[in-house]
Amino acid sequence: MRAENVTITANRPMFKWKGKGRSHEDLQLLAISSRMTELSYNISDIQTRIFEIQELRHKSQSATEPSNTTGVIDQSLSSLDERLETVTTGIKSINKSLEPLFERSEKTPTIREAAPTEEAVILRKHAAMVGEWDALQKEIQVLREELKEDKWLTVFRTVTDQADGMMSSLEKAVNRCQDFIWQVQRQGLEDAISRSSSSSIRSDKSPMNQDMFNSLQESYEAKKKHYMPATTKVLSIIDKGVQDRVTKNGECLRRHAESTQRWRNLKERIARTDSEMEAVH
């Protein structure tokens, strides 16, 4: 709730000062009251800008194509920081100016609960403004944490996509080897059946093509050499990131678990394929 905008009039005593200094103090308090109203509006404006940044976040998360939302958000944050600095400076200045009133209030606690004198009004207005400011700082902290999480999730998705891409390439290489192994085994079985049926009947199947095996083996080994250590490294980075952040993001936890299990299964297939390729050589 915005601090109430109350004008401090000069026809009632504030600190019960007498003489020419009275009118000077009244003017000073009037200026402070106006400044608090201005700061309260600034706080409200910052809250609106926080809401706009949150809208940009949600728009970015629901977008199907990349956009320049991150740049816009960073620019908005920079502008927000400038406004926050202005409000911080203003509140410090007001607190310093009101120190005599704070001291009087501590000595006479009933001032805050008394009839709406200028003293009570200015104290309530200040308390309301400080309450708004404290709430705003909490909102800012939440926003910064959420934006930090957004950036980490963007990096996580990029790195996980890289790991998935390398595993897909390895899986294709394994599948080609498995197809070749199956063809060799089938040909061997057919040749054995043909020989047992009639020694005079020769199988029309050609023997295993050595050039095909060499080409397949070379491609397979090259992909293993390049992608296996790279995938292991990328997944270890993902593991550390997930553990360090203790993230609760559902997408992150699901993809991390899927990638870990996929890599475990793929390494088992690679080990089995290595043995089978050696056997058919």
UniProtKB/TrEMBL annotation:
Q: Enumerate the InterPro entries for this protein.
A: Karyogamy_KAR9
Its protein name is Uncharacterized protein
Q: Which PANTHER family match?
A: KARYOGAMY PROTEIN KAR9
One GO CC term on file? mating projection tip
Q: Which GO terms describe its biological process?
A: establishment of spindle localization; nuclear migration along microtubule
The record's annotation in Pfam families points to:
KAR9
The upper taxonomy is: Eukaryota, Fungi, Dikarya, Basidiomycota, Agaricomycotina
Coiled coil region boundaries: none
Query: Where would you find the membrane-spanning parts of this chain?
Result: none
